Amino acid sequence: MALLLGVDTGGTYTDAVLIRDEREVIASAKALTTRADLAVGIGAAVEAVLRESGANVGDIGLASLSTTLATNALVEGQGGRAGLVYIGFRAADLQAHGLAEALGGDPAIVLNGGHNHAGGEAMPLDKEALLAWLETGTGAEAYAVASLFATRNPAHELAAAETIRAVTGRPVSLSHHLSAKLNGPKRALTALLNARLIGMIARLIDRAEGKLGELGIHAPLMVVRGDGALISADQARERPIETILSGPAASIVGARWLTGAAHALVSDIGGTTTDVAVLREGRPAIDPEGARVGPWRTMVEAVAMRTFGLGGDSEVHVRDEGLEGGVILGPRRVVPVSLMAAEAREAVHGVLEEQLRAVAPGEHDARFVRAVPGIEAGGLGEREEALLGRIGVDVRPVGKVLKTRMDGAALTRLVRRGLVQVAGITPSDASHVLGGLDSWDAEAARMALELVARKRTGSGNRLAEGPEHLARMIVDRLTHQTSLALLETAFAEEDMDFGLSPTALAEHVLMQKGLDGHRGLVRIESGLAVPVIGLGASAASYYGAVGARLGCEMILPAHGGVANAIGAVVGRVTIRRGGTVTSPSEGKYRVHLESGPEDYAASDAAMAALEAVLRAEAQAEAEAAGAVDIHVTARRAVKEAQAEARRVFLEAEIVVEASGRPRIAV
Q: Global pTM?
């Protein structure tokens, strides 16, 4: 039987797994994710799993990749420089809908143009203004185009894309290709994020394919989409936004495959994020409002999941304003000091020892910075360029490269662009101090935690009595924040409205006192009523305490540390395509297509025509993705109104789904 190879590139580790006959895990392995060149980590993980299994590479009939790269990039504000072309909207809409924040200083232009609800041209497209803007040089690596009512008529998006490609030769992301739904600003945001990810995901796929080829693996490469389905590598290159929540979605598929659980919370802790979803009747729900990652609500179909900036490599922030002080974790990932020291021992140890000899703790103690080679650095400001020059090619203490407060903001911008990595203490370092981990440099972790423990709280006392005390504080905080994440997700999925937001309910004093088992004049009890499936390499280290805190069964399956890689290769190819029929006037039924609107005299004829187009598109795309045994289904949602004694057609939405198993080379 052919073997299936699953690979997952996470923020910290790259996992690989070999499965025989879709039923049995025969080998799994981990390697450190190498952000400067992801292929190095992929190659190391695949080579390790081949060594462990003794498998013949010629027996591998399918390779599939899931990745948290896109998710982490959006959570951390990273990605390439993207330009936004916003057609038919007002300039004020950039502010009103959060697009200006999402742009983060990247170039944008608002043009006349767009269409109306019926698909008619509202105003001619201002091609001259677009051409002039492009010829000035924007520095963008890719472009996003969003036009008013483009899902009713995409002509202006298509025309703008043609101009952009002719002038710049750069990739273009069109909003109507990513969603058939209305809500122009939300489509614009989705297209912008897609454009920002294009270069990053393309580099990952190219290098992954190249590395697998070097190892003699020539099986087709699939990529996991955010809803857990598989798509081809070429499709992922074109629409990388669809891979957000790819890793978490794969983990849910893997959790179901590993445990057979039908009803549970699934919590996957990685280096950067904790992803929580609900498994009902063995299937994860699809978020009807689109995937939310970090602060962004997109129009991407993905599993209904909450993503929290909380992981084994989350940055530890010292809370020193109160009398007792404390720590808070995330949302940003940093390189653990123990890992940085494992890669550059002399530089890190020398700085830590020097800082320990100082009489008073410094603001930037136990924090380091290094440049990431091989990343496009175009479009930097003068301050960022100067700071990048000071950092150079070696590991440097943060305190030696930051000269002013403004340099701190410049460093943040460099980190967001992926040009620089910052190291600091993390839960992974705490676990090294407590003996739960021994993967990296435990001595460096101990020195770093000792430095941070010396910081003073509002009372003037030390934050912690020593590295072990601080390590326990960090792990306890991880338990607390993980418990809040699970409770927030559970409240969000409850059928009952409790009158407060899920976040407020999770943090509510009555909820927390109930977890403590309060007994006074009032008895308060609370917790989770369903099991939690804990996934991720560090779940075994942390999640026992989480289960005890929430009073629920904690399932930690064998191979749970590579559930993402397992889910990457046991999923199905599923393509969905949607479209709309409207009625601009009585007796006229308009089908909105890529080629423009088409009118019919009867609603049934219009819906049949649209369904036929969508079926053909979904079938063709499923075949292009490498699916076989394809089954195509369609559903219609028709809106009607009562007018005196008859029903009047208003609108119909048709969604077609083509699903099949991936083709396995033999």
A: 0.75
